[in-house]
Amino acid sequence: MAENRVLVAIDALPSLSPHAIELLDLQIEDADAESHLLHVVNGEPPLAAKLIGAANSAAFGLSRVRFGTVPLAIRRIGLRRSIQLCTAALVGQPLEVGLRPEQRMHLWRHALTTAVVAAELARRQGIDPGKAYLAGLLHDIGYMFAELREPGVLARLEALAIDQETTIDLLEASVLGCGHGEITGELLTYWKLPRALVELFRDHHRLPPSPASLASVVATAEHFARLADVTEAFPGDLGSLFAGIAPDPEALAAEVGALFEIDGAEFERMLRRVQAQVAEIAGLAAAMSTPARPPDGGAHPPSGRVSRSDGRAVQ
After folding, report:
1. Tens of pLDDT, residues 143-193
2. What domains appear along the chain, each with residue ranges and CATH number?
3. 3-state secondary structure of 287
Protein backbone atom coordinates (compact mmCIF):
# COMPACT_ATOMS: atom_id res chain seq x y z
CA MET A 1 0.00 0.00 0.00
CA ALA A 2 1.23 3.48 -0.79
CA GLU A 3 2.54 5.64 2.03
CA ASN A 4 -0.34 7.44 3.63
CA ARG A 5 -0.13 11.16 2.83
CA VAL A 6 -3.45 11.94 4.48
CA LEU A 7 -3.53 10.27 7.90
CA VAL A 8 -0.76 12.49 9.20
CA ALA A 9 -0.85 14.93 12.09
CA ILE A 10 -4.32 13.77 13.01
CA ASP A 11 -3.56 14.62 16.61
CA ALA A 12 -3.08 18.28 15.61
CA LEU A 13 -6.75 18.62 14.68
CA PRO A 14 -8.93 20.77 16.90
CA SER A 15 -10.83 18.83 19.54
CA LEU A 16 -14.33 17.64 18.81
CA SER A 17 -16.99 19.58 20.64
CA PRO A 18 -18.16 17.57 23.69
CA HIS A 19 -21.65 18.47 22.59
CA ALA A 20 -21.26 16.02 19.68
CA ILE A 21 -20.83 13.17 22.15
CA GLU A 22 -23.86 14.39 24.11
CA LEU A 23 -26.02 14.34 21.00
CA LEU A 24 -24.88 10.85 20.02
CA ASP A 25 -26.07 9.64 23.43
CA LEU A 26 -29.31 11.62 23.31
CA GLN A 27 -32.45 9.54 22.78
CA ILE A 28 -35.54 11.14 21.32
CA GLU A 29 -37.59 9.20 23.88
CA ASP A 30 -35.86 11.03 26.74
CA ALA A 31 -38.26 13.40 28.51
CA ASP A 32 -35.70 16.21 28.39
CA ALA A 33 -34.49 15.56 24.80
CA GLU A 34 -35.71 18.88 23.40
CA SER A 35 -34.40 20.95 26.32
CA HIS A 36 -31.07 19.11 26.09
CA LEU A 37 -30.83 19.90 22.37
CA LEU A 38 -31.66 23.55 23.05
CA HIS A 39 -28.88 23.65 25.66
CA VAL A 40 -26.39 22.25 23.13
CA VAL A 41 -27.42 24.60 20.33
CA ASN A 42 -27.35 27.64 22.62
CA GLY A 43 -23.75 26.77 23.44
CA GLU A 44 -22.81 26.52 19.75
CA PRO A 45 -23.78 29.80 17.98
CA PRO A 46 -22.79 28.61 14.48
CA LEU A 47 -24.99 25.55 15.00
CA ALA A 48 -27.97 27.77 15.82
CA ALA A 49 -27.48 29.63 12.53
CA LYS A 50 -27.36 26.36 10.58
CA LEU A 51 -30.49 25.03 12.25
CA ILE A 52 -32.49 28.22 11.62
CA GLY A 53 -31.26 28.26 8.02
CA ALA A 54 -32.35 24.64 7.60
CA ALA A 55 -35.81 25.37 9.00
CA ASN A 56 -36.25 28.16 6.44
CA SER A 57 -35.03 26.05 3.51
CA ALA A 58 -37.21 24.35 0.92
CA ALA A 59 -36.53 21.02 2.62
CA PHE A 60 -39.24 21.75 5.17
CA GLY A 61 -41.78 23.42 2.93
CA LEU A 62 -42.05 26.92 1.58
CA SER A 63 -43.68 29.41 3.92
CA ARG A 64 -44.11 33.14 4.14
CA VAL A 65 -43.28 32.82 7.82
CA ARG A 66 -39.57 33.01 8.59
CA PHE A 67 -38.39 31.01 11.58
CA GLY A 68 -35.98 33.16 13.54
CA THR A 69 -35.50 31.27 16.81
CA VAL A 70 -34.00 27.89 17.62
CA PRO A 71 -37.10 26.47 19.39
CA LEU A 72 -39.27 27.32 16.37
CA ALA A 73 -36.65 25.86 14.03
CA ILE A 74 -36.60 22.58 15.97
CA ARG A 75 -40.37 22.35 15.85
CA ARG A 76 -40.37 23.02 12.11
CA ILE A 77 -37.65 20.45 11.37
CA GLY A 78 -38.70 17.89 13.98
CA LEU A 79 -36.76 16.83 17.04
CA ARG A 80 -35.24 13.63 15.61
CA ARG A 81 -34.02 15.25 12.39
CA SER A 82 -32.74 18.30 14.31
CA ILE A 83 -30.63 16.05 16.54
CA GLN A 84 -29.26 14.20 13.50
CA LEU A 85 -28.35 17.39 11.60
CA CYS A 86 -26.75 18.99 14.67
CA THR A 87 -24.71 15.86 15.38
CA ALA A 88 -23.38 15.72 11.82
CA ALA A 89 -22.61 19.44 11.83
CA LEU A 90 -20.64 19.20 15.08
CA VAL A 91 -18.64 16.17 13.93
CA GLY A 92 -17.74 17.88 10.66
CA GLN A 93 -17.10 21.29 12.20
CA PRO A 94 -13.34 20.86 12.89
CA LEU A 95 -12.85 19.85 9.24
CA GLU A 96 -15.19 21.87 7.03
CA VAL A 97 -13.91 25.31 7.99
CA GLY A 98 -10.81 24.71 5.86
CA LEU A 99 -12.73 23.69 2.73
CA ARG A 100 -13.87 25.90 -0.13
CA PRO A 101 -17.61 26.75 -0.18
CA GLU A 102 -18.32 24.57 -3.23
CA GLN A 103 -16.53 21.63 -1.59
CA ARG A 104 -18.63 21.97 1.55
CA MET A 105 -21.75 22.11 -0.62
CA HIS A 106 -20.71 19.02 -2.62
CA LEU A 107 -20.04 17.02 0.54
CA TRP A 108 -23.28 18.06 2.25
CA ARG A 109 -25.34 17.31 -0.86
CA HIS A 110 -23.75 13.89 -1.13
CA ALA A 111 -24.12 13.18 2.59
CA LEU A 112 -27.78 14.24 2.69
CA THR A 113 -28.66 12.23 -0.41
CA THR A 114 -26.90 9.19 1.04
CA ALA A 115 -28.80 9.69 4.30
CA VAL A 116 -32.18 9.82 2.53
CA VAL A 117 -31.48 6.62 0.57
CA ALA A 118 -29.96 4.85 3.59
CA ALA A 119 -33.05 5.56 5.67
CA GLU A 120 -35.33 4.07 3.00
CA LEU A 121 -33.20 0.94 2.55
CA ALA A 122 -32.91 0.51 6.32
CA ARG A 123 -36.67 0.76 6.78
CA ARG A 124 -37.11 -2.09 4.29
CA GLN A 125 -34.70 -4.27 6.29
CA GLY A 126 -36.12 -3.58 9.72
CA ILE A 127 -33.11 -1.43 10.67
CA ASP A 128 -33.63 1.81 12.57
CA PRO A 129 -33.96 4.41 9.78
CA GLY A 130 -32.86 7.16 12.16
CA LYS A 131 -29.53 5.43 12.73
CA ALA A 132 -29.18 4.88 8.99
CA TYR A 133 -29.90 8.55 8.26
CA LEU A 134 -27.26 9.69 10.77
CA ALA A 135 -24.78 7.16 9.39
CA GLY A 136 -25.39 8.55 5.90
CA LEU A 137 -24.68 12.06 7.15
CA LEU A 138 -21.42 11.05 8.83
CA HIS A 139 -20.11 8.40 6.45
CA ASP A 140 -17.68 10.47 4.41
CA ILE A 141 -15.96 12.80 6.85
CA GLY A 142 -12.82 10.92 5.80
CA TYR A 143 -13.11 12.67 2.44
CA MET A 144 -13.36 16.02 4.24
CA PHE A 145 -10.15 15.35 6.13
CA ALA A 146 -8.39 14.06 3.01
CA GLU A 147 -9.19 17.28 1.13
CA LEU A 148 -8.30 19.43 4.12
CA ARG A 149 -4.96 17.72 4.58
CA GLU A 150 -4.08 17.59 0.89
CA PRO A 151 -6.08 20.16 -1.12
CA GLY A 152 -7.08 18.89 -4.56
CA VAL A 153 -6.69 15.21 -3.70
CA LEU A 154 -10.35 14.36 -4.40
CA ALA A 155 -10.16 15.94 -7.87
CA ARG A 156 -6.97 13.96 -8.55
CA LEU A 157 -8.64 10.79 -7.34
CA GLU A 158 -11.58 11.36 -9.70
CA ALA A 159 -9.30 12.16 -12.66
CA LEU A 160 -7.30 8.97 -12.08
CA ALA A 161 -10.48 6.88 -11.89
CA ILE A 162 -11.69 8.36 -15.18
CA ASP A 163 -8.33 7.76 -16.83
CA GLN A 164 -8.14 4.14 -15.64
CA GLU A 165 -11.87 3.50 -16.12
CA THR A 166 -12.25 2.13 -12.61
CA THR A 167 -13.97 3.07 -9.37
CA ILE A 168 -12.94 5.50 -6.65
CA ASP A 169 -13.04 2.75 -4.04
CA LEU A 170 -10.40 0.67 -5.85
CA LEU A 171 -8.00 3.62 -6.14
CA GLU A 172 -8.20 5.13 -2.67
CA ALA A 173 -5.44 2.98 -1.21
CA SER A 174 -2.97 4.03 -3.90
CA VAL A 175 -3.89 7.74 -3.78
CA LEU A 176 -4.75 8.31 -0.12
CA GLY A 177 -2.76 5.47 1.43
CA CYS A 178 -5.95 3.85 2.74
CA GLY A 179 -9.69 3.90 2.12
CA HIS A 180 -11.81 6.89 3.10
CA GLY A 181 -13.68 4.63 5.52
CA GLU A 182 -10.48 3.93 7.41
CA ILE A 183 -9.76 7.66 7.57
CA THR A 184 -13.27 8.22 8.96
CA GLY A 185 -12.70 5.46 11.49
CA GLU A 186 -9.40 6.96 12.63
CA LEU A 187 -10.99 10.39 13.05
CA LEU A 188 -13.83 8.98 15.12
CA THR A 189 -11.38 6.95 17.19
CA TYR A 190 -9.26 10.03 17.83
CA TRP A 191 -12.36 11.90 18.94
CA LYS A 192 -13.36 8.96 21.18
CA LEU A 193 -16.70 8.31 19.55
CA PRO A 194 -18.48 4.97 20.21
CA ARG A 195 -16.60 1.90 18.98
CA ALA A 196 -19.61 0.55 17.09
CA LEU A 197 -19.76 3.76 15.06
CA VAL A 198 -16.02 3.61 14.38
CA GLU A 199 -16.20 0.04 13.08
CA LEU A 200 -19.25 0.78 10.93
CA PHE A 201 -17.46 3.49 8.96
CA ARG A 202 -14.10 1.76 8.90
CA ASP A 203 -15.65 -1.29 7.27
CA HIS A 204 -18.60 0.06 5.30
CA HIS A 205 -16.93 -0.70 1.97
CA ARG A 206 -15.14 -3.88 3.08
CA LEU A 207 -17.78 -6.04 4.74
CA PRO A 208 -19.34 -8.91 2.77
CA PRO A 209 -22.69 -7.81 1.32
CA SER A 210 -25.50 -8.44 3.80
CA PRO A 211 -28.93 -6.82 3.47
CA ALA A 212 -29.38 -6.95 7.25
CA SER A 213 -26.21 -4.93 7.81
CA LEU A 214 -26.21 -1.18 8.45
CA ALA A 215 -22.78 -1.06 6.81
CA SER A 216 -24.23 -2.61 3.63
CA VAL A 217 -27.14 -0.16 3.69
CA VAL A 218 -24.79 2.84 3.93
CA ALA A 219 -22.41 1.57 1.24
CA THR A 220 -25.28 0.93 -1.18
CA ALA A 221 -26.88 4.29 -0.42
CA GLU A 222 -23.58 6.04 -1.12
CA HIS A 223 -23.36 4.46 -4.58
CA PHE A 224 -27.00 5.37 -5.25
CA ALA A 225 -26.27 8.98 -4.32
CA ARG A 226 -23.54 9.09 -6.99
CA LEU A 227 -25.86 8.10 -9.86
CA ALA A 228 -25.83 10.64 -12.68
CA ASP A 229 -29.65 10.64 -12.67
CA VAL A 230 -29.43 11.92 -9.08
CA THR A 231 -26.50 14.34 -9.21
CA GLU A 232 -27.55 15.92 -12.52
CA ALA A 233 -30.99 16.68 -11.09
CA PHE A 234 -29.54 19.22 -8.65
CA PRO A 235 -30.27 22.82 -9.61
CA GLY A 236 -27.54 25.11 -10.90
CA ASP A 237 -24.14 24.28 -12.35
CA LEU A 238 -22.24 23.65 -9.14
CA GLY A 239 -21.52 20.05 -10.07
CA SER A 240 -21.25 17.20 -7.58
CA LEU A 241 -18.77 14.97 -5.81
CA PHE A 242 -17.12 12.56 -8.28
CA ALA A 243 -19.56 13.51 -11.03
CA GLY A 244 -17.26 12.15 -13.73
CA ILE A 245 -17.38 8.57 -12.50
CA ALA A 246 -21.02 7.85 -11.76
CA PRO A 247 -21.93 4.19 -11.18
CA ASP A 248 -23.57 2.22 -13.96
CA PRO A 249 -27.31 2.35 -13.16
CA GLU A 250 -28.06 -1.13 -14.49
CA ALA A 251 -25.24 -2.69 -12.48
CA LEU A 252 -26.35 -0.85 -9.35
CA ALA A 253 -29.98 -1.86 -9.90
CA ALA A 254 -28.87 -5.49 -10.10
CA GLU A 255 -26.81 -5.10 -6.90
CA VAL A 256 -29.67 -3.44 -5.03
CA GLY A 257 -32.06 -6.09 -6.31
CA ALA A 258 -29.87 -8.94 -5.10
CA LEU A 259 -29.23 -7.41 -1.68
CA PHE A 260 -32.60 -5.90 -0.85
CA GLU A 261 -35.04 -7.82 -3.09
CA ILE A 262 -35.96 -4.66 -4.98
CA ASP A 263 -37.01 -5.27 -8.57
CA GLY A 264 -36.22 -2.99 -11.48
CA ALA A 265 -39.57 -1.20 -11.35
CA GLU A 266 -39.21 -0.41 -7.64
CA PHE A 267 -35.61 0.72 -8.19
CA GLU A 268 -36.90 3.23 -10.76
CA ARG A 269 -39.60 4.43 -8.37
CA MET A 270 -36.99 4.83 -5.66
CA LEU A 271 -34.82 6.82 -8.06
CA ARG A 272 -37.74 9.12 -8.90
CA ARG A 273 -38.47 9.66 -5.21
CA VAL A 274 -34.89 10.78 -4.64
CA GLN A 275 -34.93 12.99 -7.75
CA ALA A 276 -38.09 14.65 -6.42
CA GLN A 277 -36.19 15.63 -3.27
CA VAL A 278 -33.03 17.12 -4.80
CA ALA A 279 -34.25 20.73 -4.63
CA GLU A 280 -35.04 20.24 -0.95
CA ILE A 281 -31.70 18.52 -0.36
CA ALA A 282 -29.90 21.36 -2.14
CA GLY A 283 -31.60 23.95 0.07
CA LEU A 284 -30.77 22.02 3.21
CA ALA A 285 -27.18 21.52 2.06
CA ALA A 286 -26.83 25.26 1.49
CA ALA A 287 -27.94 25.93 5.05
CA MET A 288 -25.79 23.23 6.64
CA SER A 289 -22.66 24.09 4.63
CA THR A 290 -22.60 27.64 5.98
CA PRO A 291 -19.12 27.84 7.53
CA ALA A 292 -18.71 27.90 11.26
CA ARG A 293 -16.06 30.04 12.88
CA PRO A 294 -12.69 28.22 13.00
CA PRO A 295 -12.03 26.42 16.29
CA ASP A 296 -9.11 27.55 18.42
CA GLY A 297 -5.90 26.43 16.82
CA GLY A 298 -7.20 26.65 13.27
CA ALA A 299 -8.39 23.90 10.98
CA HIS A 300 -5.27 22.95 9.08
CA PRO A 301 -3.12 20.33 10.77
CA PRO A 302 0.64 20.78 10.29
CA SER A 303 2.49 18.39 8.08
CA GLY A 304 4.28 15.42 9.51
CA ARG A 305 3.96 11.68 10.01
CA VAL A 306 1.75 10.26 12.71
CA SER A 307 0.89 6.76 13.79
CA ARG A 308 -2.62 5.36 13.88
CA SER A 309 -4.71 5.82 16.95
CA ASP A 310 -3.84 2.27 18.04
CA GLY A 311 -0.14 3.13 17.97
CA ARG A 312 0.71 1.25 14.75
CA ALA A 313 2.26 3.10 11.82
CA VAL A 314 -0.04 3.61 8.86
CA GLN A 315 1.40 1.77 5.88
Report:
1. 888 888 888 888 899 899 899 988 888 888 888 888 888 888 888 888 888
2. 17-97 (no CATH), 100-290 (1.10.3210.10)
3. helix
